[in-house]
Each structure stands twice: as structure tokens, then as C-alpha cells.
Amino acid sequence: MKSRQAGLTLLLRVTIVAALVSATASLPAQVQLHPPVRTPQGLRLEWTDPGPGSVHTVQTRDRLTGGIWLLPEAPENWPIAQTRWTDPNPSAPARFYRVLTLPAVQRGHLLNAEYRTNLTTVQIAILLALAGVNLTPQYAVQVYKLTYETIGPWGEPTRATAALVLPVGPGPWPLLGYQHGTILRTNDAPSAASITGELGIGVVFASQGYVTVLPDYLGLGDSPGLHPYHHARSEATAGVDALRAARAWCTQLGVALNDRLFLAGYSQGGHATMALHREIEQFHLQEFNLTASAPMAGAYDLSETTANDFLSGRPQPNPYYFAYLLAAYQEVYRLTNSLADLLAPPYDTLLPPLFHGHVGGGSINAVMPNNPLLILKPEILQAFRTEPDHPLRLALRQNDVHRWRPTRPMRLYHCSGDQDVVFANALAALSHFHQQGATQVELVEPLPGGNHATCVYPSLLQALQWFETLRR
């Protein structure tokens, strides 16, 4: 993970002022962290300016041993160009800070656009009929693959890809971001242009008159590295930058857009959609007029509802979800020295080689126990059960996506018979939003008692019907 740790690193403990500085060849300027200053707004950190072209991300942890580096809880559009930041709530007895200094990137800059295919309304109608979906396509579509600049989990420069599906007609069109579900193989990502996969959903939305953007996320498609599965911030930043790249390509093509933006996604895409909605409301409403979002069947409450479901020991329909999450969080947060160090035999040798982007979920399920927690070493599992500040619990909480207050319309779609992503996730999100006064958020069960698979089409179709009432 050298690329994710590149740059200058500063370390500070609040109770004892001590700084550790290291530099790389790409950023040779010496950076020094000044003593922190307590202000009425909180604890202010400042550091020297390494020069133009640099940005900074602050990380925190409340203990040096047995903890992990996290983004601060206070919302901030990391990385920042400023060389100061204030922690509004430094409540821990001892808190450590680390400042990563990184090269700046032109987020959303379109690097390449490649025409992939087109489909007529007749072809789309055939695909819908084969899927058993009663919907009439209104427009033919064109499909493009976009490559664009974005940032990694800590703000480091990287690139990502997305599919863009355009309705053929005069417009102007609303923009729609669709976030896909769980994918392990890099070539199953939407930009790979398999109409029978997730891209097909984008084709359907575009056939109804939506310019549809389907980000691959980091680590899928042509993006390097392991996909940071259920990492909320990178799901959101990759989504924002995909929307930017799509608008740039539409401008070059002369495709007219109106001022409406819709978001939707199913399963992991539900989690990513809620993360993207939050990101836009917190930082980008001057850039995007977010009209409404439809998160569907997502694991919004990872640290409690989802963790408790895993800890219940019930057989999981797809135990590979947990292994994928563990591999991703090990890559991002460095829970321990290596993924194998978390795993009991024989999983310590069986599982790590499978997360390289070429093995599907079915193959990983085949070597997994139905209770996925049994892949953990007994002492790791016991610590996860009993320690509220266990590194994995901290990582899960950092990636909960329901602990905020949305102001724009949102409908959650979920079926109560879902055993892959339990329905209680939607109930937890709805309860928290309503407690925060976000009473415009609604929960819809599109197919009463439906499971994770049978709920897909009813959710998508009902979300589309809702969007149609808001698009003009």
C-alpha cells in the first residue's frame, strides 16, 4: 500500500507534543508540525507549507498500540489545501494525529472516453422481455467507457473508470448516478460493457431518458489495487468524480443536461448511494443539484446491525462478503500486519490469494464456512466480540453511512426477507434519520417478504417511477 501512504507524514500526540516527520523524493520540502493550540472551536493543528501542488489529510487515533488510523469524525472534504485544521471535539484522554501530505489531483478530470456500443429500442425491449421486466424503452442508447482522475481512501492520486450510457435524442436530460452491487472480478465492472451485468441497469435508465453514470469504484475496471469494499468515503469520491467526468464528456459531445441529479444503487450500491448522497450534501451542493436518491438493500449500519448479524453465527447465503470486507479493510486500515495474520488455518493460506480481481464470489464461497466468522483466529474473534474499540469495529463504524441528517428527498427500498443484507439496516437508517428530523426520508418494501435477489427489479422499477414524478 505504498501509493496510499506516499507523501509526508507528521505525527502528533495531544498530551505530549511530539512530531515525527518523514519525506519522500516526490515531496522534498521539509514539513514541520507546530505545537497545537486550544481555541474555543477546538484543538487547532498547523503545519508548514511544503509548497504548491500539495494537499493534506489528517488522521487520528486514540492509542498507538492496538488501534488504527482513521479520518476525523468531523466532516471535512479531505484532502485540504490549507495547512491548518481544527479538531472540534478532542475528547479522548490522549489523541494522536498524523498529517499525510500528498500531491494534488484534478479530481474528475476526464483522461479518456471510449465509445463501446449502441442499442436500439428494439434490442433493449428484447433484453427487458428476457428479464421479465414490463417496461417499454423510450430511447435508443449509446455506451461509453470513461477514465478519470480521482483520489484514494486517504486522498492520494489515482484513476478510476466508469460506464456512461446516453439516451439518443435532443434532451436536455437529467443526470443519474447508479452505484453497482458487490463485484470481485475487475472485468465484471460496468465499464467492461457486458449488457447482461450491472451495465444493463444503466441501459434501462438511459432508455427512459436519463444520462446514466455507473462508476466502477476504486480497484475495479481499470483502477489499480484491491477494491476498498464498503469503504464509504472512496465510494463517494469516486462517484462524485465520475459525475464530473460524465458532465465533461457530455459537454464535448454537445449532449444537453438539465439541473436534475438522481442517485440509485442496490446492495453494496445502496451503501455507496447513501455515502454519495452524504458527500454531495456536505460538500458539493453548489456543484450538483441533488434531486433525490434511492439507496436499496444496503448495509448502512455496518458497526451494529451488520456486525451483530455476523456475530449471531447464523449461516450466511454469501459468506464471502465478510472475507471481502476483511481483506479490503486490512488493505485500507492495516488492522494487523497481513490478512493471513487474522485468519485461522486453513483460511490463512486459502483466502488471501483469491482477492486479486480474477476470482468470483461463488469460488470464494466454496472454500468458506457458512458462518464466516469461523475464518478468524479464535483470539481475533474473541477480541472482536468483546472489545468495543477493536480495530475492525472502529473501521466498520467509520464506514456507517446513516449517522447524519439528509435534507434532500431519499427513499430506502428493501425487502424484509433479505438474508444477504438484513432488513434491519434500513430500519436503523430510517430511525436515525427521523430522530435527526429528516422526516422526508421514507422506507418502501417493494415486494413484501422478498429476498435479496427477488427484491432487485421491484426496487429499481419503483425507484424509477418515483424519479419520474420529480424529473421535471
TrEMBL record:
Q: Which UniProt keywords apply?
A: Signal
**Which BP terms in the Gene Ontology apply to this protein?**
lipid catabolic process
Name recorded for this polypeptide: Prolyl oligopeptidase family serine peptidase
One matching Pfam family is LIP
> What Gene3D superfamilies does its record include?
1.10.260.160, alpha/beta hydrolase
Report the source organism.
Answer: Limisphaera ngatamarikiensis
Instruction: Give the residue range of the signal peptide.
Output: 1-29
Q: Where are the transmembrane segments?
A: none
The cross-references to InterPro entries, in alphabetical order and at most eight, read: AB_hydrolase_fold, Lipase_secreted
Provide a Gene Ontology MF annotation, just one. Answer: triacylglycerol lipase activity
